[in-house]
Amino acid sequence: MPRVNVPFLDDNEIRATADGVIYELWGNANYRSGSAYEFKLASNTGTPLADWVDESLETLSHCWSKEEPYNHI
Q1: pTM exceeding 0.90
Q2: What was the pLDDT predicted at 4?
Q3: In the beta sheet, which residues pair with residue 40?
Q4: CA distances (Å), 20 to each of 3, 30, 38, 47, 60, in order?
Q5: In angstroms, rounded to a whole number, what is the distance separating the alpha carbons of residues 17 and 15?
Q6: What does DSSP assign to residue 52?
Q7: Residues with Cβ within 8 Å of residue 29, at least 6 apart in sequence
Q8: Are 23 and 44 in contact (CB under 8 A)?
Q9: Under 8 Å CB-to-CB from 40, ≥6 apart: which residues?
Q10: The dihedral of CA 47, 42, 13, 9: what is its sign?
Q11: How far from the centroid of its chain's Cα atoms is residue 43's Cα?
Q12: Is there a contact between 4 and 14 (Cβ–Cβ < 8 Å)?
């Protein structure tokens, strides 16, 4: 695993996690000023983002099927 080199930090202060699950949430944020920016949140297990993703997947699991939806158009 490569070691992160951060100026002014001792090597003992740096922790790299090589296992777990990566949770990412990204999208576009539009502001009243008309500006639009991309955002990205990323975390590992045991975080509010991980909890939200896991709960959402569980809630939506009954909506999924191995069969492709019929396209009547």
Answers
A1: no
A2: 59
A3: 26
A4: 18, 32, 25, 12, 23
A5: 7
A6: H
A7: 36, 37, 38, 39
A8: yes
A9: 24, 25, 26
A10: negative
A11: 6
A12: yes
Q: What is the residue whose two structure tokens read 């639009």?
A: 36
One pLDDT digit (tens) per residue for the chain, 73 residues: 456 566 666 666 556 666 778 899 888 888 888 888 888 888 888 889 999 999 999 999 998 888 887 887 7
Helix (H) or strand (E) holding 32: none
8 CB-near residues (< 8 Å, 6+ apart): none
Nearest to 16 by CA among 25, 4, 30, 8: 4
**51-68 burial: b if 16+ Cβ within 10 Å, else e:** eebeeeeeeeeeeeeeee
Q: For the chain, how many residues are written?
A: 73
Query: What DSSP line would sit under 10-73, residue for residue?
Result: -GGG-----SS--EEEEEEEE-TTS-EEEEEEEE-SSSHHHHHHHHHHHHHGGG--SSPPP---
